[in-house]
Design brief:
445 residues; alpha+beta; Heat Shock Protein 90; five-stranded mixed β-sheet; two-stranded antiparallel ribbon; 12 helices; 57% helix; membrane; transmembrane helix
Length: 445
Amino acid sequence: MPIGFVSRRIDLLPGQPGPEPIRLRTLILLRWVAIAGQLAAVGAALAIGAKFPLAAVLGVIGLAIALNLGLSLRPGRRIPAREAAWQLGFDLAQIAALLALTGALENPFALLLLAPVTVAATALPGRHLLALGVATFAMVTLAAIFAQPLTFVPGRLSLQHPLLVGHWFAIVIGALFFAAYARLVAAEVSATSDALFAARMALEREQKLQHLGGVVAAAAHELGTPLATIKLVSAELADELSEALPDREDLAEDVALLRQSADRCRDILKSMGGAGRDDLLIRSAPLSEVLSEAAAPHRGRGAQILLKPGAEDPIVHRDAAVIHGLRNLIQNAVDFASERVTVETGMDRRDIRVRISDDGPGFPPTLLPRIGSPFLTTRPRAEDGRSYEGMGLGLFIAKALLEGSGARLRFGNGTQGAEVTVTWPRELIETENRGALGQNPEIRS
């Protein structure tokens, strides 16, 4: 299933970033497979007596090895579509150069010129695919024009039809490559699709809870007056019964039970009304209040949550996606903290920042470039050092939701534990501070 189809089918948030075009790790792996195949083909060609400029061929293969070794220093980082297109263009040029040195279109392995454009067709936007398609046409033409003939030394190996055998191997290798690559892409797209579906379900659940909170607040407000009336009337009935029927203790107990039930309803609505503050009509709030709302479900879970607002407390959009994303980050910090989680805010002329840190073991350095990918188990628990058995969806969902609001996330380790910094451009999250309306003006007749 192409990645473009998945991105159109699952619309998480307006303005969300597009899916990662292709993993750098995948490009490196495919290039190592190609290098191994090229070296094997060179060895087989020499064995059957093929004549070609060996030094030049090994030099071209050495360029691909050098590129892969350089990229392997940071294999887990995310790459944009432009960089992926340039790397596929390099692979295309490298294969075309090898073909030009070994017979060009007469070489049975000319079929492999289709590999880079196939990768581009499944993973890159249309404009990059078009560019690689044009480059493929140009490389095929140049390889045919500047081709050096491929000849064979007689008597080296008794093959009556060496090119026919080469074509057989090329078709088999090509079929294996295209099948394996299609399978790999399908597995990556399936994992991303599942993770995006989980994020979408989590956001829908958050929005339903907020709707429910508004209904609860309205019910608490509307039922307050009739409950107060019931309590007042029951108190008057108790006084009248004690005077008119002092010997009817059963009636006095019934009235007392009525008053207790009214008090219980009042207490229940009061507690539910606390959750009802999440009214959808509250579209903006101070950043410190948004963070307090995000941290509320995780207070009392063991680690202490310290909120440290900056000198300025900006008014920001109170968005369910932002609250849920911050809540997931705070939950992850609480899960791994030893004693304390610190949430700090700051702002400057351009950006608003939130830094969430804990005093746990931190992120493993080897996994830092992959933090935020779906189905990634991140780090050991603080208290016992055992692996945390989770799917890694919490950080993926948080990253998807917060990036959908325009934020940039940076995962790292501080002096004591893990740190996550969320940065928004002020124009994307800050909103107008309406403030209080003030006293009503005095009307004089």
